[in-house]
Design brief:
Blueprint (H helix, E strand, L loop, with lengths): L1 E3 L2 H8 L4 H10 L2 E5 L2 E6 L5 H13 L3 H5 L6 E7 H4 L2 H12 L4 H10 L2 E4 L3 E7 H15 L4 H29 L1
Antiparallel strand pairs: 1-3, 2-3, 4-6, 5-6
Length: 179
């Protein structure tokens, strides 16, 4: 299997002095060769083709190997939002500013409420986290993309995060009762 990336994405995957890729290979036991501007997966190790593709896509967006390897767990998900496909070039910069906020405040709040990791690149937004949390983070980002007021999105995020916490607490109690 061969995965092609542009130079920026490939340098994100490889990391400084190859550290990120080495960490990934060590943890996944995959056999990977660098051929031109592509990665040739000789053996996926303990991963399947879908997982390894998602992991490399996440690393290409700027996630580190440790974050990408979370996707091995069925509880975790990775979601990409393509800004290039949704927005005119003139609007992209403005919208990215809305996503990041002053001193990164908006993205920090999304991370805080959802316990997801969020990365913003030139044309993409990537989200890694538990499945339900990723859905909520993606919806919050899409609400901001469509022009919703920040405060309205924050209130919605607060309510949704409380619902997730309540569900997790209930699940913990049910598991304790089964033991």
């Amino acid at each position: 299997m061969i995965l092609s990336y542009n130079k920026t994405e490939l340098s994100n995957i490889i990391g400084r002095k190859g550290k990120k890729l080495k960490e990934f290979v060590k943890a996944s036991k995959a056999k990977i060769k660098l051929v031109d501007n592509a990665l040739e997966i000789e053996s996926p190790g303990n991963l399947n083709q879908y997982e390894i593709t998602d992991m490399f896509d996440a690393m290409a967006l700027g996630f580190n190997a440790k974050e990408a390897l979370l996707l091995q767990s069925p509880d975790y998900a990775f979601e990409k939002i393509n800004l290039k496909a949704r927005l005119r070039p003139t609007r992209r910069k403005v919208i990215k500013g809305r996503m990041i906020g002053k001193k990164g405040g908006v993205i920090k709040l999304i991370k805080q409420f959802t316990a997801c990791d969020v990365k913003i690149s030139d044309n993409m937004i990537g989200i890694i986290g538990k499945y339900e949390s990723v859905k909520i983070a993606k919806l919050a980002i899409e609400k901001l993309l469509h022009g919703k007021h920040h405060e309205a999105v924050y209130r919605w995020l607060r309510r949704e995060s409380q619902k997730i916490e309540a569900t997790e607490e209930l699940t913990r109690k049910q598991l304790q009762e089964l033991e």
